[in-house]
Design brief:
The structure is a homopentamer of 357-residue chains. Chain A is an alpha+beta fold and 357 residues long. Chain A has helices at 53-57, 72-82, 86-93, 145-155, 160-163, 166-179, 181-199, 205-237, 245-310, 332-353, and strands at 30-36, 41-47, 61-67, 100-104, 107-118, 121-131, 135-140. Chain A has two domains: 30-282, CorA soluble domain-like (Beta Polymerase, domain 2, 2-Layer Sandwich), CATH 3.30.460.20; 288-353, Magnesium transport protein CorA, transmembrane region (Methane Monooxygenase Hydroxylase, Chain G, domain 1, Up-down Bundle), CATH 1.20.58. The first copy, chain A, has ten helices and seven strands. In chain A, helix 7 (181-199) runs parallel beside helix 9 (245-310). The radius of gyration of chain A is 36 Å and the shape is rod-shaped. Chains B and D meet through helix 4, helix 6, helix 7 and helix 9 of B and strand 4, helix 8, helix 9 and helix 10 of D.
C-alpha cells in the first residue's frame, strides 16, 4: 500500500468540482443493475446509465453498481440520473477517502474501504454507497466479482435479502465489505506465526524486511478500517429514515464484526511491536556469542604468540651470558611448551568461571 | 494460543448461515441437563436434545449444557428445541467470537471466553449462554468438568443457587468462567518471578523465548478477556427483564473480578515490557564486559608481540654498524624484557584509571 | 520549523497590549479588498485601511485581507476601521497562536495555521479571521498568492461563493487553509517512501538525519494542525448567529478534511517510529555481519600464526635432543602445512555449523 | 512485592464462602475497641469479639479494629456480632483485593491498600472498613501501631475527631491510610536521585538491578493505589446516607491527596523510563570508548608487526639477488624504523581527523 | 528540580494542623498591601499583618501579598486577620501542592505553580490565592519582583485593572503566574535546538547528560503545570459568586494560554524522545564505523602476517628436500610479495563489494 492514496483538488478549488480521472488512467466504466421485488428479479450487466432511469422510478427495489472510473460525460449523466449531491459525488471520484457517513437530503451517503488480498499483498478499494427508500447505488473501481455473491443471493426466490427493503440490501453490501477483513487478517495471522518461527533463528535483513512489511501494512490497514466502526455506529445510533427497525439487529451484528476486526488489528500491532523487540534481542544475543568466541580465541592465542615471538628473537647469545640463555637449555623447548599449556589452562579456567562457554 | 482463532463464513454469505464443523474435526456432542426447583432436582448427562423438550416447558428452572461441536442435523434440532435466534446460533458455531451480550426477543445471548491452564499452556474456550426466564442454555466445546461444580452446588438442597431463578444460575456460570482467570494469572505471576531471577543472570535465547512467550500470551489473553468487563457492565447498566434486582449485588461482585483481572493483566504487561528492557540491558552489560576483557588482553600483548617481532628480524649485522646493534649488546635481552614490563605496567595503569577492571 | 514560534508579551503585561513588530522586521503592510453582491464585484489590491470604511458600511459582502506586519499606527487605524476586540487583535499580532475560535460581541474570531511547502521545507503561517454578518477580515503575514484563488472564484458571476453570504466566504477561506495540508502530506508520504528504500540498504548518518527531520517536522506539524479539528467542530456544534444553516453541510465537509489530515499525520508518526526501529535493527545486522567476518578471519589465522611462531623460535637444537626436533625431520614442513590445513578445516566446520557464513 | 497477592477461592465456589487462613499462617487475632462520645471515651485493646456487643448497641460512636487473620470460629463470631454481609466478609478474608467501595444494606464497605516502608522495602496491606451510623469496623492484618495515632487524637477531649460522627472517624482513617503514601514516595524520590547519580558513572548490573527494582515497585504500587482515587470520588459523588455534609470538605482534601500521589507515581514512572534509556545510552557510550581504544591500538600495531614479520623471513639471500636484498643494506634497519614511524604517524593523523581520541 | 518537593505532616496528623517551617529555614516574612479604588491608591511594602485590618474592612479593593515563610505566631495572626480556612492555610504552608481550586465558605482558594528561570535552571514556586469580594490575598515564598508589575499597572490611574473588582485583579495575578511559562519554554526550545545540532555530531556523555536533564525537567515541569488547565477551566465552568461575568472573556484568554503551554510541553516531550532515539542511533553508527575500520585493517594484515610467519620458520632445509624449498628459490621473496599483493587486492575487492568503505 502507498502512504498517500487520496486524490484531491488543488486547495481553493470550489466544493463539489468533479474532475474525471485522465482518460488514459480510467478503467472502463461498467454499470450493473439488479431490480427486484419479492416476486420477480431483473439482473442486467454492463448497461448504459440512462437505461437505469425507468427502474429507478418504479416501486421495486433497485441496486445499481458502477464499476471503474467514470469519464467526465458519464459523471454528469450519473448525477442527473440518480440525483446525487455534488459534494458526495466529489468524494466518490476523489478516491482514498476516509470511511464516513453523510446524510444528503433524502439520500444517505456512505464511504467504506474494502481490503482484498491480491497475490500476497493487501489492496484497499474505496466503495461508496447511496441509499434511498427504493434504491442503493454503489461505486467501486475494482472488480465486480465480490459483489456478484449478493446478486446470487438476490436470485434465490425465498431469501431474506429479496423480501426486505433497500436498507437490508445496504446491510448485505456493508457486511460483505467489512467481512473481507477476516480473510485478510487470517493471512496476516499466518504470516506472523511464520515470522515468530524465524525471529529467534535468523538475523538476516530479509526477516527484518518482512517484519517491517507486516508492521507497515497493519498500520495502514488500521488507518483504513478504523473509521468503519464509527460509520456503523452512526447508522445504529442516529435515526435515519432510510433504515428500518428490523434491520437494526443485523447492523448490530455488522458493528460487532468491525469491533472484532479492530480488536484483532490492535492485538496484531502489539504483537508485531513485541516481535521486533524479540528479534532485536535475538540479534544482540547472536552478536554476543560471536564476540565471545572471538574473545576466547584471541585471548588464548595472543599470549601464546607473544611467547613464540620472544624465542624467535635473534639476540646474539655469544655477546653475553644474559642474552637468551633459555635457548641453550637442553629442555628449553619443552619448558616453553609447558609454559604455554599452563597459560591456556588458566585462561580456560577463567573463561569457565565467567561462563563464557 | 494461535493469533487468529475465529471461524468465519466467506464474505457475502447470508447472515445466520449455520455451517457445522467438518465431521472429522467435530468433537462428540453431549447434552447435559439439570432441572430443579427448591424441592427437587433432576441431573441427566449425555442425553438427546429432544429429551430436553418436556423440561423446558415446565415451570422449573432448567439448565442445558451442550458440550462439543454439533453436527448439521444436531444444529437444527437444537435450534428448534430451544427457539434460538439464527444470528446467535451462528456466533455459537463460529467460535473465536469476541465476548459480547446481545438481546434477542425474550432471550439474552452472552458470549464469554474461558481461559484454562492445560499442561503449562493457556487455552481459551468460547462459552455461550442463552438466558430466558426459566432456562439457561450454555455451549462449550471443551470438557464438562469445570461446570460440574455448579451441578454439585445445585445438588445441595439449601444452597442459594437452588432457591433462586435462572438469572442467579447465569451469574453462577459467569462467575465460574471469569474466576478461571485467577489461577491462570497466578501461574503467569509465578512464571514472571522465575523470569525475573533469570534475566540478570543469563543471556541465552531460551530466556528470551520465555519472555516472548509470556508477552504474547498476555497480549492474546488481554484481547480475549478485555470485553468481559463491558459484558458484565451492560448486564448491570441496562434493564434486562431476565435479570432480577436481587442478583445485581452478585453481578457487581463479578464485575469487580473482571476489573481485578484486567488490572492485573495491564500490570503484568507493563512488567514484561520492563523485564525485556532489563534483559536487553543486562545482555549489553555482559557484552561490554567481554569486549573489555578482549581489549585489555589485546592492547597489552599486541605491542609486546611487535617488540619481539623487531628483534626477530634478520638484518645483516655485518653489513653496517646501524643494523640492529642491540642484538650484540651483552644485556640486550634483559633490556628488552625491562622495556616490555614497562609497557605492560603503563597499560595497566591506563586501564585502571579508566576503571576497565 | 523552529521549536518555539510564539510571540508573547513579558509576563504581567496588560491584556490586549498591541506591540507592533520592530520596524526593521515588519513586512510591508498591504490591504486587499473585495466587495461583492450577486450582481457586481469590486476588487482592489494594496489600498489604505481607511479606504475600506465606505465598503464596510454598505450591505454588500466585503472581504478585506491584510497582508504583512502592521506598524503601530496601522494597527490602531485597523482597530478603529473594523471595530476589532483588543484581545483578538493581540492574538493576530502575537503570531504563533494555537488555532482557536473565540466569539467577541457580534464578531467571530478564528485563528488557523496554514502549512506551505517552500523549497522542500514546511513553513506554517498564522491566518486569522474576523467574521461578521457582512464582512470577513483575514490577516496573514505571508504572500497573497494562495488567497487569490478565492478572488478568482468570486469573480465568476454565477459561482456559489458569489451568491452566498459572508459565512460561505469564511468557509471558502477555511477550506483553502485546511486543504493546504494535503499537498504537504503528499510530499511527506513521498519522502517516507524514499526513506523506506534507504533504511534497509544504508546505515549512514545522512539517512538518520533525514529520519529525524521527517519525525520532527511531523511532530511540529501535528502540534500546529491538531486544534483545527476542534475549531471546525465548534463552528458546527455551537450556534453562532453569523453561520447560516445552509453552510453547515460544507463545514461538515471541511471537518471531514481536518480529520483525514490528522488521521494521516498519526499514521505517518506511527510509520516513522516503525522506520526508525527498522533502521536501528538494520544497522545492528550490518554491524553483526562485519563482526562475524572479523571473527571468522581472526579465529582462523590467529592459531595458524601461532603455529608459525612456534617453528620460528631459535632454540639451540644442538643443546639437546628435545629442542625442536621437528625442525630436523625430512617432512617437518609438510607436516606443519597438514596441521594448519586441519586447523582451518575444523574451524570452517565449526563456523558452518553455527551458520556464521 | 509479589506479582500475584490475591487470595481467591477455586472457581465455582459459592459466593460468600468464608475460608479462614490455615491455622499455621494465621497471625494472632486481636480486637481493639474505642467507644466515645464528646464527653467520655473507653479504649480497650485485645478483647474478645463478643465484648464489643454492648458498645455497638449504645448511641455512642464505636470503633472496632480487628488485627491479624481470624480463625474460622472467630469469623462467624465477627459476622454475627457486627451483622456484616457475607460477600463483604469474603473480600476482607481474601486479601489482595483491589480498593473499592460497595454499599451493603445500611453499611458502607470500603477496601483500601496501605503502603508501608519496612526496612527499605515497600509492603502493601489491605485495610477494610465497615461504616454504619454509629460505628466503624476496620480490619488490617498488620500492626496496630499506625492506627494508634487515631486513638490518641480521639483521647484529646476537644478534638474535632471526638465531637463528630462515625463518618468523620472514617475520614480520619482513610486519610491515615492514604497519607502513608507520602513517606513511601519520598523514599522513592530519594532512591531515584541516588540512581540518577549512578547511571552516568557506572555500567554494572547492580545499578541495573536497582533500576529494575524501583521500576517494578512503582508499577505494583500504582496498581495498588490507583483505585483509591475512584473510591474517594465515589464517596464524594454518590449520596451515601452514612456520610454527612460537613465531612465532604475533608473528603475533598483526601481526594486531593490521592490525586497528588497518583500524579507523582506517574511522573516517577516516566522518570524511570527516561533513566533506563539514559543508562542504556551511557553503557553504549562506554562500550564505544573501549572499542575505539582497541581499534586504535590494533590498527597501529598490526601493520607494524607485519613489517617486522617481513624481515623475519628466512629467504636464502645467497640463492639470488632479489631474495631480501634489504637485509644486506648498511642502513636497512634504520630505514625500517623510519617506515614504521611513518605508518604510525599517518595512522594517528587519520584517527585524529575522525576524532577518535 | 527535586523529585519530591511536597511538605507533608506525618500520616495521622489532624487536618488543618499548621506547622511553621523551622526558624532557621524560614525566609523573612514580608507583607505588602495595595489598597485601591478607581480614584485613589495606597501601596505599602513590608508591613505588619495587623496593619492590614483597617483596609480589609473598607469597601475599597485590597491586595495583600505575603512573601516568605511565616513563623508560627505570624500564622495565627494571618489566620485571624484574614479569616482563612484552616485546611487552606495548611496547604499554603505545606508547599509543593498540586495546583487546585477549592471554595471555602465565601472565599475561593487557589494554588498555582510559578516556573522561573534562575541562572539556567528551572525553579517552581507555589503561589496561593484567597479571593473574596473585596480582597485578594496572595502567598509566595519567593521574591516580590515579578508581582511588582501588577502594582505598577494598578498605579496607572485609567488602567483596566484599577477600575475593575477583585476578580479582575485575581485574573491579572493568574495571568502573570501562567505567562511565566512562556519564557521558560522558549528557553527549553533554545536548548533543544542546540542539542539537535550536537546529537548527530558527538557521542560523549556530556550530550547524553544534557538530553537527560532537559527530559527530566520537562517531565517535572509538566507534572507541575498540567493541573493549571483544570484550575482555570473550573473557574470558567463553575458558577463562583466572586467571579463576575465581564472577567470571563479574560479568563478564557488565560485558559487558552494554559492549553498552549501544555501543548508545547507535550510536543517538546515527543521531541526529546525522538532526539534520544536519534542520538542512540548516531552513537551506534559511529561504533559501526569504528568496528568496520578495525575489521578492514585486521582482516587485511592478519593473513599477511601469517604468510611472513610461514617463511620465518626455521625448518632445516638440509634435512630434506621438502623442508621449505621456497626459501632457496632465486625469486622466492618476490613471489611472496606478489602473493601478498594478491591477497590484499582480493580483500579490498571483497570489502568494496560489501560497501564497507
Amino acid at each position: 500500500m502507498a502512504f498517500f492514496t487520496k486524490r484531491y483538488h488543488p486547495p481553493g478549488t470550489a466544493p463539489g468540482t468533479l474532475t474525471a480521472v485522465p482518460a488514459d488512467q480510467a478503467a472502463q466504466l461498467k454499470v450493473h443493475l439488479t431490480d427486484y421485488t419479492a416476486d420477480q428479479i431483473t439482473a442486467l450487466e454492463d448497461i448504459e446509465p440512462v437505461e437505469c432511469q425507468p427502474y429507478l422510478q418504479r416501486d421495486s427495489m433497485t441496486w445499481v453498481h458502477v464499476q471503474g472510473h467514470p469519464t467526465e460525460a458519464a459523471l454528469h449523466e450519473l448525477q442527473a440520473a440518480f440525483k446525487l449531491h455534488h459534494l458526495a459525488l466529489e468524494d466518490v471520484l476523489n478516491r482514498g477517502q476516509r470511511p464516513k457517513i453523510e446524510p444528503y437530503d433524502d439520500q444517505l451517503f456512505i464511504v467504506m474501504s474494502m481490503p482484498l488480498m491480491k497475490s500476497g499483498l493487501v489492496e484497499v478499494q474505496q466503495v461508496s454507497f447511496f441509499l434511498s427508500g427504493t434504491f442503493v447505488i454503489s461505486f467501486c473501481e475494482g472488480d465486480f466479482a465480490p459483489f456478484r455473491k449478493i446478486v446470487n443471493r438476490l436470485r434465490e426466490p425465498g431469501s431474506r435479502l429479496r423480501s426486505r427493503g433497500s436498507d437490508f440490501l445496504l446491510y448485505g453490501l456493508l457486511d460483505l465489505v467489512i467481512d473481507q477483513g477476516f480473510p485478510v487478517l487470517e493471512d496476516f495471522g499466518q504470516q506472523m506465526e511464520d515470522l515468530e518461527e524465524q525471529i529467534l533463528r535468523t538475523s538476516d535483513n530479509e526477516t527484518l524486511e518482512r517484519i517491517h512489511t507486516v508492521k507497515r501494512e497493519l498500520i495502514l490497514l488500521r488507518h483504513m478500517l478504523w473509521p468503519h466502526r464509527e460509520v456503523i455506529n452512526q447508522l445504529l445510533r442516529d435515526d435515519h429514515a432510510q433504515i428500518k427497525e428490523g434491520t437494526m439487529i443485523y447492523l448490530r451484528d455488522c458493528y460487532d464484526h468491525t469491533i472484532q476486526l479492530m480488536d484483532l488489528l490492535e492485538t496484531y500491532r502489539d504483537m508485531m511491536g513485541s516481535m521486533l523487540d524479540i528479534y532485536l534481542s535475538s540479534v544482540n544475543n547472536r552478536m554476543n556469542e560471536v564476540i565471545r568466541v572471538l574473545t576466547v580465541i584471541a585471548t588464548i592465542f595472543i599470549p601464546l604468540t607473544f611467547i613464540t615471538g620472544i624465542y624467535g628473537m635473534n639476540f646474539d647469545r655469544t655477546a653475553g651470558f644474559w642474552n637468551m640463555p633459555e635457548l641453550g637449555l637442553p629442555y628449553g623447548y619443552v619448558l616453553v611448551w609447558l609454559l604455554m599449556v599452563g597459560v591456556v589452562a588458566s585462561m580456560l579456567i577463567y573463561f569457565r568461571r565467567r561462563k563464557w562457554f
